[in-house]
Write a structure and sequence with these properties.
The complex is a heterodimer of chains A (250) and B (815). Chain A is an alpha/beta fold and 250 residues long. Chain A contains 9 helices and 10 strands. The longest helix of chain A is centred in the last third of the chain and has 18 residues, at 178-195. Classes of the chains: A alpha/beta (250), B alpha+beta (815).
Chain lengths: 250, 815
């Protein structure tokens, strides 16, 4: 489960990460490594520390103690601007909702991370990515003119445009119906299969988790187990035995 | 980042409307004030009477006054001086006209004499007929011989009639020998006398008010004039024809600088408020930008970019419309005789540029405040469901507040400890701004504190909706503070300025009334014949009578360090004779000292101190013999006689006897009330200017507050919808919004009163010795009513609109 310092091959590595919010422990000494080219789902009941885990792993939030190494970069002691630039270059994000800038067209939203970094957007790359997510016909549309599933695919395109080391997804299907959700999850899995993308997805939906190569379970701020090649049934079964639920069930 | 700012602007026009409106009106006011200032600086008064003379020579109306005691300086040191303006007309020696005639190329030299005259009730200006070419007037009829006049066509009189004319204190009868027609519209009607008559009636034979020169070049004329006067051409000639415009123009500059500067400061507040509000409402969007890789710096630049573009658009429109408001304000000022209407309103590109620069600077300063807040948005907030309010008390806010409160306290101490009389008002303006700035810096905390203090009354007066409103105000203190701050500012500035004015007025009227020992007044606008004094003294029931002449003198020796370029007020009375002077005890002179003075028209005179008198602080003046002072005023005569009744003679009897004794003379007789009313009227002009400017700044603040509150409330559609879903009726939601509006108004009024008190109380302590200002309470109540009604309307109307329709639709609507 844990790996040594010298192994820089992991996309993201957390080492004894602890996070407290005003005395409440959200993460309690989490150590885990995510290999490159893997699709991992992080699951856990509400309050298990899923979101905090994602924020710390992605450099959005600083751990109270412990270290996070993202694509070989130790995040410890780095200032906000450095972290922002690191996120811009190495990390992609897909959120549950409200994740596109309403003033920008689909294409403008997608190239935004490149523009923020002061890079020129390669037109062919953008076209290829938009085709990949199935939106090549809607480049000039505003987010408000798209369905929820289409908006989420724009968000995935935006997350992929910088060719990030890791793509973090926070409940990416939470606001979608089951069919659209399946399309979006399929898209994420394809990115891993076809171009070796690393994806870390936080979810509480066993079906969504079943698209991943491996599921990591969190409970009470600790890693409570892992499950390779998951099925929805197996995940659901494990979930009922986690945390407080698990204790009641036992 | 700039492109992103532009795109956001295009999609979210509504969200920036508040900023646009705030910048627009701010820039409009600054631009209009700039126009008034340019008018004052240029001080262009197109010539009327002297239009035909290409070169006009006038008296040297200014002089260099040393700012340091010349006795303490080494001879080789450069003297620091300031330019002082002589308040009375400086006339030219007639001999200068003769010297100018000898200048090569000069074809004609015409001396101009102007004196006030009266035909019945209408006032005209008297001149000598040989100077009619200066305009030039065309004559129908004959030139006047002694005992004859030529009248202005505008007076509608007929040649051949006999006309009684009052001038220089006497009434004479003149035969109309002809009618003169001016080539253009004239402010004053003219009456032309034979040169010998005019010389007599002017009261200053051998001296001209101005000399018109035809032919010859300016350099040669200037060389011939030397130090004896000033040579003007073109529009500058107007300053010699209308010398009173000089002081008005100066006042106009001060006035416009103060109100323009105040507007710019208010604008920083208001725009910072609207920008902060709009960034707050886009918190999630900004957090998202941060999450996808926007650095805090880029976010700040984006906020700045958005504000700058909005500001640029608003400023462009405002600058285009600025001259319209400027012209209107100028019209109001001339209508109320604050500035003479012969002054030409002039608004060129300079005020536009200054207004644009100042406004954009204010926008940049405001966006710095808002941008700092925006850049502190944490990226994780994009992922959280509800954005929580963070700590608002930053070190910068705290330091600003401490510095401002320190400054305000220091000003209060200085006012009470050092200042005397009306001068104390000079610290009050800055004090208002300091207290307001300080409170604004910590406004979320203060809002929360006052809301907590108001907990009991609100609970007692309202039900559950009041409780929710209270929680909203306390939890959303930053948002509430955004509305509280501008209202506080408006209440503070309005209350402070108006009551400073009324207190000062009351103090001045009180001083005048208490110092006035006269029971009646005999006056003449054109001056009183010195013989009237004897006649009045002889009237039975008169205990004493004295001429009453006011002017300004400049103390030259010994050096008077407390004297500025306005000199020292002087009063001329008949009780003093010769070269006597009574000085206020505050000047530090002793009986027997000799003072070297420059009188109002620049004439030097040495006087001996015969008494040192204690005078009311702030109203000190040098008392001189009327016979010494009067000839050196523009009029040349005393305009008034003050009369004291003998014991047992009542006012009505006294005035009746005075009227009888002065029958046939061109004078009016009034009682004590006439004098007091005339004094109060003089103050009213100053008050009126103050009200106009306060009104303008208030209107600006009001517009800003309304548009801020409307924007903030309309955006709460979702919140209101949620409340209705959780069991509130629409009426309860509206009542809750009403209580919130009331709370905001109450907090703002309390803080605004505090701000005003910080400036008014020290001032009142100095001027009237009481803690409370003088003036009607109704003004304060009106200000309160405006604040409350505005807050309620600005919250309730959009809340009413936002709760129309079904609650479910409101909650499902996107942001």
């Amino acid at each position: 489960m844990t790996t040594g310092w010298h192994e820089a091959g992991d996309a993201v590595r957390l080492d004894a990460v602890r996070k407290e919010y005003g005395g409440v422990v959200a993460l309690d000494g989490v150590s885990i490594a995510f290999p490159r080219g893997g699709f991992t789902a992080v699951m856990g009941p509400s309050g298990s520390g899923k979101s905090t885990f994602l924020h710390c792993a992605a450099g959005l939030d600083r751990p109270t103690s412990g270290r996070v190494v993202l694509d070989g970069q130790d995040l410890d002691g780095k200032n906000e601007t450095y972290l922002t630039k690191l996120r811009r270059d190495r990390v992609g994000f897909v959120f549950q909702s409200f994740n596109l800038l309403p003033a920008l067209t689909v294409e403008q939203n997608v190239v935004l991370p490149l523009q923020l970094a002061g890079k020129r957007a390669d037109k062919r790359l953008v076209e290829r990515i938009l085709a990949h997510v199935g939106l090549d016909g809607r480049r000039k549309h505003l987010p408000g003119q798209l369905s929820g599933g289409q908006q989420q695919r724009v968000a995935i395109a935006r997350a992929l445009v910088t060719d990030p080391a890791v793509l973090f997804a926070d409940e990416p299907t939470g606001a979608l119906d089951t069919r659209t959700a399946a399309e979006v999850l399929g898209l994420l899995r394809d990115s891993v299969r076809s171009s070796g993308q690393t994806v870390i997805m936080v979810t509480h939906d066993p079906v969504a988790a079943s698209y991943a190569d491996e599921v990591v379970f969190l409970a009470d701020g600790r890693i409570a187990g892992r499950l390779a090649r998951p099925t929805a049934e197996a995940v659901a079964e494990r979930m009922t035995h986690l945390g407080a639920w698990g204790r009641v069930a036992a | 980042m700039f492109k992103l700012a532009l795109r956001t602007l295009r999609l979210r026009k509504g969200g920036f409307l508040a900023t646009f409106v705030a910048v627009f009106f701010g820039a409009l006011v600054i631009s209009a004030c700039g126009g008034l200032m340019e008018t004052g600086i240029r001080s262009e008064t197109p010539v009327q009477r002297l239009a035909a003379a290409p070169i006009v020579v006038g008296g040297q109306q200014t002089f260099e006054q040393p700012r340091e005691d010349p006795a303490t300086l080494e001879p080789e040191d450069k003297h620091k001086t300031e330019t002082a303006t002589l308040p009375e007309r400086v006339r030219l020696d007639a001999a200068l006209a003769g010297r100018l005639r000898a200048v090569p190329g000069v074809t004609n030299v015409v001396g101009e004499v102007t004196f006030p005259a009266q035909i019945g009730a209408s006032r005209v200006l008297g001149h000598a007929w040989d100077s009619a070419v200066l305009t030039p007037y065309t004559l129908k009829g004959e030139a006047p011989k002694p005992g004859e006049v030529v009248v202005d066509a505008g007076l509608g009189l007929a040649a051949g009639d006999t006309l009684p004319v009052a001038a220089h204190g006497t009434v004479g009868r003149y035969r109309i020998s002809g009618i003169a027609e001016a080539p253009q519209a004239m402010r004053d009607s003219a009456l032309f006398f034979a040169p010998s008559d005019a010389e007599k009636l002017s009261g200053h034979p051998g001296r001209f008010d101005a000399i018109g020169v035809f032919g010859g070049d300016v350099a040669a004329v200037s060389a011939a004039v030397g130090d004896a006067g000033v040579v003007t051409t073109g529009v500058d000639r107007g300053a010699l024809e209308f010398p009173e415009t000089g002081k008005s123009a100066e006042n106009l500059i001060v006035l416009s600088a103060v109100s323009g500067g105040l507007s710019a400061l208010v604008m920083v507040f208001v725009v910072a408020g609207t920008l902060t509000l709009s960034t707050q409402q886009r918190q999630r969007e900004l957090a998202l930008l941060r999450a996808v890789g926007t650095t805090p710096r880029q976010l700040r630049r984006m906020v700045l970019g958005e504000a700058f573009v909005v500001g640029l658009l608003a400023v462009a429109v405002a600058v285009a419309l600025g001259p319209v408001l400027g012209n209107w304000l100028f019209g109001q000022l001339t209508d109320h005789q604050v500035v003479p209407d012969v002054l030409r309103f002039e608004q060129g590109w300079v005020p536009a540029t200054v207004a644009a620069g100042a406004s954009l600077l204010a926008v940049v300063a405001a966006s710095f405040v808002a941008g700092r807040r925006a850049s502190r948005v944490r990226p994780t907030e994009a992922l959280a469901e509800a954005a929580v309010e963070r700590r608002w008390l930053t070190p910068i806010r705290l330091i600003t507040a401490i510095l401002c409160f320190g400054g305000g306290t220091a000003l209060a101490i200085v006012t009470v400890a050092v200042m005397t009389g009306p001068v104390a008002a000079s610290t009050a303006g800055p004090a208002v701004m300091l207290w307001a700035f300080g409170l604004a810096a910590i406004s979320p905390g203060v809002t929360k504190l006052v809301a907590t203090l108001l907990r009991w009354p609100v609970h007692a007066l309202t039900g559950v909706n009041g409780r929710v409103a209270l929680r909203n105000t306390r939890v959303g203190a930053v948002r509430a503070a955004g509305a509280v701050t501008p209202i506080m500012l408006a209440v503070g500035i309005a209350t402070a300025n108006i009551y400073l004015q009324t207190t000062q007025e009351a103090a001045s009227n009180q001083a005048f009334t208490e110092d006035l020992r006269a029971d009646a007044v005999v006056g003449a606008p054109g001056g009183l014949d010195p013989a009237v004094l004897g006649r009045v003294r002889a009237v039975p029931g008169v205990a004493g009578a004295s001429e009453y002449v006011t002017s300004t003198v400049f103390v030259e020796k010994p050096f008077d360090s407390g004297q500025n370029d306005d000199g020292r007020p002087a009063l001329g009375i008949s009780e003093l004779t010769g070269n006597a002077v009574e000085v206020p005890s505050t000047l530090g002179h002793h009986v027997g000292d000799t003072l070297s003075l420059k009188l109002g028209d620049g004439t030097p005179v040495d006087v001996r101190v015969t008494a040192v008198v204690h005078q009311r602080p702030g109203f000190e003046r040098l008392v001189l013999p009327a016979a010494l002072l009067a000839p050196h005023t523009t009029l040349g005569l005393a305009p008034q006689l003050l009369v004291q009744a003998a014991p047992g003679v009542d006012a009505a009897t006294l005035t009746a006897r005075l009227r009888e004794a002065t029958a046939g003379l061109p004078v009016f007789v009034g009682d004590r009330e006439t004098l007091i009313a005339a004094h109060a009227k003089g103050n009213e002009i100053g008050a009126w200017v103050n009200y106009l400017l306060v009104g303008m700044i208030l209107a600006y603040t009001v517009i800003s507050v309304v548009n801020t509150l409307v924007m903030a409330t309309a955006r709460r559609r979702r919140e209101f919808g949620m409340q209705r879903l959780s069991g509130f009726t629409r009426g309860q939601v509206l009542r809750m919004a009403g209580v919130e509006g009331g709370l905001i108004a109450t907090i703002a009024v309390l803080l605004g009163t505090l701000v005003a008190a910080g400036a008014i109380v020290p001032f009142c302590l100095v001027v009237t010795g009481s803690l409370l200002p003088s003036g009607p309470v109704s003004i304060y109540l009106v200000v309160l009513a405006i604040a409350v009604v505005l807050s309620l309307v600005a919250i309730l109307v959009p809340a009413w609109a936002a709760t129309r329709g079904r609650a479910v639709d409101a909650t499902s609507a996107g942001e």
